[in-house]
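Fold it.
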Amino acid sequence: MHLFAITAMALPSVGGGMSRAAWRTPTVQAEFQLWTSRVNGWGIDITAAELEDNLWNFAVAYEDGRRKILEPLFPYFRYTGSWQSWRMFVAPHRYPGRLEIEIDTGQGWQPVYVARSSEHSWLRPWFDHDRSRAAIFRYAWPHFRRARKEFTDWVAVQAARDFPEAKRVRTSFVRYRTRSPEEVRSGTPAKEERELKNVRELKDYR
């Protein structure tokens, strides 16, 4: 029974990725395009949109069946401590989001924290901790809207305390495509776009 239980729990699962919004992100769409080309190369005529719809229907049925198998085993997982909550990476994230936090003192936005920056390093021990980085990675996906807003509320509390002259704080993610080896060698900069912006008035947090 134990071997069956942990094997069933170890089976792949889409988990939080069961979101059409997540599937529309450039990283996931690039995977669909790549696999469509591969499937076409095997002699199967299918478009990327058809492949996505077929995979969505399969994933819905698969997750429902997996849940029905595992639900009776949940008490056992909790009792034995054999719960498995994380999943292995399935593909490189070609369009990551870099967290940036800015304050406005009345003269426009000024960065105070930029991920992996030694210059803008406000609360860096917090944001760069392994646990925080795992959470922040999720906030860069569109379907984690509620968690991202709660995170911005927490940031506003800290900013109101540390920057008494600041009027507003903004969290956002700068999205970019990871560069190819050729682009890195030639020094071609990545094209960046700021998105998923959340602004808070700091007077509401003082």
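The chain has a mean pLDDT of 91.
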